[in-house]
Automatic annotation (TrEMBL):
Reactions this protein catalyses: 6-phospho-D-glucono-1,5-lactone + H2O = 6-phospho-D-gluconate + H(+)
Positions of transmembrane segments: none
Protein's job: Hydrolysis of 6-phosphogluconolactone to 6-phosphogluconate.
Keywords in alphabetical order: Hydrolase
Protein name per its UniProtKB record: 6-phosphogluconolactonase
InterPro entries: 6-phosphogluconolactonase_DevB, 6PGL, Glc/Gal-6P_isomerase, NagB/RpiA_transferase-like
UniProt xrefs under Gene3D superfamilies: 3.40.50.1360
Pfam families referenced in this protein's UniProt entry, alphabetically: Glucosamine_iso
EC code(s) of this entry: 3.1.1.31
Family annotation (SUPFAM superfamilies): NagB/RpiA/CoA transferase-like
Domain named Glucosamine/galactosamine-6-phosphate isomerase: residues: 12-223
Pathway of action: Carbohydrate degradation; pentose phosphate pathway; D-ribulose 5-phosphate from D-glucose 6-phosphate (oxidative stage): step 2/3
Length: 233
């Protein structure tokens, strides 16, 4: 069964960033109205910076929002590779400065990502899934979250019946070791966004839809949650 893909295409990146920021804020606002709190999981990398800055300006009750990450490079937050640092520098500001942030990196186990999995997974579970909104990115190699082609734990991460909340990942294209939500947790969200930019990524997504074996295909081959695809050239 394939996911329902809802496509949102924009003339340029700023227009996309503005609309995605408003749409995510609206989902969080709805969640606060319905349940008194909201949870948001975001991706890192280079694509989300502008959207984070605009999301931070949205006027919702951020004190009731907890933000976490979809995946993280196993580096301390002073590294320019840190996704937590990206969130700290671009999202936890302005209106959003009162949001809570739950990192995936655990300094107590800074030399051993696998030793951190139980604690980090328990902290994510304590949020009470489903997430209200989760935003995926996609790398030029077809990875999403830290589901890397050739990753040492890729099969376990993508197991639709897997019970783990987070898993470690090492891969040639990943740089340092990673920690990532598993596929069942990525799909455990009320709204799932995929934010991609550039013709190359659009073409790669089309190849994955047509059956090419990229990790992103696992998000497309599921019927649990529709995928809201936001794209700009
Ligand atoms: O390493 C990562 O890469 C992907 C995509 O990043 P981008 O720089 O191509 O936008 C990102 O979604 C993921 O969270 C990150 O850890």
């Amino acid at each position: 069964m394939n996911a329902k893909l809802v496509r949102h295409e924009f003339a340029d990146k700023p227009t996309l960033a503005d609309k995605l920021a408003r749409d995510v804020a609206s989902k969080l606002d709805d969640a606060i109205a319905a349940r008194g709190k909201a949870t948001l999981a975001v991706s890192g990398g280079s694509t989300p910076k502008m959207m984070f800055a605009l999301l931070a300006e949205q006027e919702i009750d951020w004190s009731k929002v907890t933000i976490t990450l979809v995946d993280e490079r196993w580096v301390d937050t002073d590294s320019d590779r840190s996704n937590a640092r990206l969130v700290g520098e671009h999202l936890l500001h302005h209106e959003a400065h009162t949001a809570a942030f739950l990192p995936l990196f655990d300094r107590a186990h800074k030399d051993d990502v696998d030793a951190a999995l139980a604690d980090v997974g328990a902290r994510i579970d304590a949020l009470g899934l489903p997430f209200d909104a989760l935003i995926l990115g996609m790398g030029p190699d077809g990875h999403t979250a830290s589901f890397f082609p050739g990753g040492d734990n890729l099969a376990a991460a993508l197991d639709p019946n897997g019970k783990a909340t987070v898993i470690s990942m090492r891969a040639g294209g990943a740089g340092e070791p990673r920690i990532t939500l598993t596929l069942p947790k990525v799909l455990d969200t009320r709204t799932l966004y995929l934010h991609i930019e550039g013709q190359d990524k659009k073409d790669l997504l089309a190849q994955a839809e047509a059956g090419a074996d990229f990790p992103i295909a696992a998000v497309l081959k599921q019927s649990k949650v529709p995928v809201e695809v936001y794209w700009a050239p």
